[in-house]
Amino acid sequence: MPAVDFDVIINMFAMEGMVALGKMKHPATDTLSTNTEQAKFIIDILGVLSEKTKGNLTESESRSLEYVLANLRLNYVQESNASGSVISTPDAPDDSNLA
């Protein structure tokens, strides 16, 4: 087994996120399926990890984490748009009263 370091943790979450987004086959079932709720949960975990480790990571670790987060977020938005899911963000204005 390889030594466990920060990159291993990030890559583990990255793989799980890509499986949840249907971009990689599930290693146990060898099938593709999409679970955007699970993907969002993984993205949120990595977001918390990013905030809580700010200033404590090497430049390489920080770059890896930000790359994985950006990649998962982009794929999440693409998958959500493709499936017609509504994405709500805390900063988004409520358009429901504009009619």
Give a concise summary:
Helix content is 59%, strand content 0%. The protein has 3 helices and no strands.
Strands, helices and their partners?
Blueprint: H1 6-20, H2 36-53, H3 59-83
Task: Explain this structure.
The chain is built from 3 helices and no strands. With 99 residues, it is mostly helical. It has a single domain, classed as Methane Monooxygenase Hydroxylase, Chain G, domain 1 (Up-down Bundle).
* Percent of residues in beta strands: under 5%
Which fold name is given in CATH as the topology? Methane Monooxygenase Hydroxylase, Chain G, domain 1
CA-based gyration radius: 16 Å
Provide the structure class.
mainly alpha
Number of domains: 1
The CATH class label is: Mainly Alpha
Average pLDDT number: 86
CATH architecture: Up-down Bundle
β-strand number: 0
Helix percent band: 55-70%
Written as H for each helix and E for each strand, in order along the chain, the element string is HHH
Spans of 5+ residues with little confidence (pLDDT < 50)? 86-99
What oligomeric assembly is this protein in? single chain
Give the distance, in angstroms, between the N- and C-terminal Cα atoms. Answer: 59 Å
Keywords:
single chain, 99 residues, mainly alpha, Methane Monooxygenase Hydroxylase, Chain G, domain 1, 3 helices
